[in-house]
Amino acid sequence: MNPPRLLCSAQCMLGIALISMAVAFPAAAAQTQADSRGLPTLAPLVNEVTPAVVNISVITRSPLEDNPLFRDPFFRRFFNLPDRPQRSEQAAGSGVIVDAARGYILTNHHVIKDAEQAIVTLKDRRQFQARVVGADPGTDIAVLQIPAQNLTALKLGDSDQLQVGDYVIAIGNPFGIGQTVTSGIVSALGRSGLSVEGYEDFIQTDASINPGNSGGALVNLRGELVGINTAIIGPAGGNVGIGFAVPSSMARTVMAQIVRYGEVRRGRLGIEMADLTPEIAKKLGVATLDGALIADVQSGSPAEKAGLRQGDVVVALNGRAIRTASELRARLGLTPVGEEVEMRINRGGAERALRTRIAAPQEMAGGGGQAVPQLPGMKMVEIERGSSLYQRLRGGGLVVAAVDQGSRAFQAGFRPGDIIYAVNRRRVQTLAEFQAALKGAERGFAVSLLRGDFSITIIVR
Questions:
Q1: Which of 34, 133, 157, 404 can pair with 143 through a Cys bridge, CB separation 3.0 to 4.6 Å?
Q2: Which of the given ranges, 122-126, 334-338, 411-415, has the highest pLDDT on average?
Q3: Is 109 a catalytic residue?
Q4: Is position 140 annotated as part of the catalytic site?
Q5: Same domain? 279 vs 255
Q6: Distance between CA atoms of 390 and 452, rounded to whole angstroms?
């Protein structure tokens, strides 16, 4: 009688496993039905979504290693060498088709940055040369377009509905070895502080994400795109269970502006913000640490005209709760110029709603300006001593007066009205200091600047 009992036990265990799987994946019960082998599987879901995930091969040019001969103008002229000798490099990343009719692909900005050529390879091995529609360094999102027919696109899901503990799968091309699928859960939401950019609101997941996965898909168990994989934290550049993705809600907003304008056009509200601390919350009479503290309101700004004051705590924007200052930065940074927003604030323990409109960046620079040899196509002027901007920066700085579209400076991400205050984290207050800092950084430099209400850093190589 023992064998029948063992057989019954095995069948019961299989039944329990199937029931457990159905409970674990309630949103995709149909996807996890047993296959012909009697085993639970996500294969139907994977087969449905993977054709929308592509490989992106990028060819860029980078300066050659420094050689004393390259510094000799006669040597360069004699051998017809360019002023900045370069070599071709190839890198690989991933992307996600989100519009089959128009051939639009979402990926990361850092995947296609400085690309001279981008080749997209589909799962069915068709290859197409892609056009870069535009990119946004602040959110690390870029949009490509390919002239292809019979494409499969992923539906954009609502990342705002994600909860910690939701199951997700990550699809990409890690290490260039080919399309790979990994699974995990949402480990955390609203992560920020991974870089100096001001538009971070990452989804954290333990689904394995490795180099080459950048730009790939983070998918829920309904087969919807909820994130664009973008970064990992690992001591040796490999996966340790801490990966990050740009939420689909942010990617959707960025894509809409890129398709319309070729870039994200950010405005200004005229506020500086910070996270609440227990001490500040107690002093302000706020019962929770959720929200963004208004640390300063610029004189004459839209924020001041709307009635915002220093010490107000923003707890919601357009009806959506605000948890941190970085979350408010990210949402305001993606609000188009001219759009009206409603901010619910806590002032002295009482809540009230204020409405204001996002204004265009201030025109702080007139005509003219001085060119910078290291950044062709851009002209800058020094900030006038004693001006309100000079006082805001607690010292001098530079304003980008003009940028020629298509120039090296424009492609790097500089725009008119940008306020430059540092190079490689060292403060610069005059044109002479700026040019000296660039001359001492032949292999690349990081320019810190203000754009509207936000601080960003542009890396130039």
A1: 133
A2: 122-126
A3: no
A4: yes
A5: no
A6: 15
